[in-house]
Specification:
By secondary structure, the protein is an all-alpha fold. It contains three helices and no strands.
């Protein structure tokens, strides 16, 4: 009995780049015409996501261990302005519901 075998195209693996060659992705401009509050919440969400990722990378997996002091210290470490209490709550929510 003949069996058909699926063949894949050979994939090329990208060359590893050094840190000197790393360039962050180009940012797109935000859409015009939104109310100011939309931009505020959009930027707050972006900052909260950056902080949540940095906390998870540093081993903070539970929202109870991510107090405001630790979140603000992480913001200082990654070079972000200190977050507000609202942003700290959002960071804890991202950690909680991302599990």
């Amino acid at each position: 009995m003949a069996v058909a075998r699926l063949m894949r195209k050979p994939t090329t693996t990208p060359k590893p780049t050094s840190k000197a060659e790393y360039r962050p992705p180009q940012r797109k401009p935000l859409p015009a015409g939104q109310p100011r509050e939309w931009y505020v919440t959009h930027n707050r969400r972006l900052k909260a996501m950056r902080l949540a990722i940095a906390l998870l990378d540093s081993g903070i997996y539970h929202p109870a261990t991510a107090d405001n002091v630790r979140i603000r210290a992480t913001a200082d470490r990654i070079g972000v302005h200190p977050p507000s209490d609202t942003t700290c709550r959002m960071v804890r929510a991202l950690i909680r519901y991302g599990r």
